[in-house]
Design a protein that fits this description.
alpha/beta; Nucleotidyltransferase, domain 5; 9 strands
Length: 140
Amino acid sequence: MAQIQRQAGTTLSEINIVPFVDVMLVLLVIFMITAPLIESGIQVELPKTKTVKAITQARIVISIDRAQRLYIGKEPVNIHSLGRKVLAMDKDVQHTPVYVRCDSEVPFATWAMVMDTLKQAGINNISVVTKPLSGEPRTQ
């Protein structure tokens, strides 16, 4: 039987980082694919329209869920402090649009009250977020 000769006191002095880099690249690709799909943590069934306005940058997003609760981003907010909190987030609201995501089951009165609250706070650049009906959406 042949015996393998080993040198005493030798250690591996280099770490193989190729598997680590492979795993990190796979994770990076996964995050790059899933990040645009995540709009907000608030579950809202958007109404469908033929004309859809594309959101090009991160903006102030107000969500109204099916239970008629209001959120700025992922933070719940009271209707009475909505205008003040939006103004505190961005001092130049005349040029920065505010997007409203409203569930399709929410009564119009609730949506109108949110819009009126924003208008009373001096916020006039308001856009409504919808999703396309079917086929190719027309973007503005």
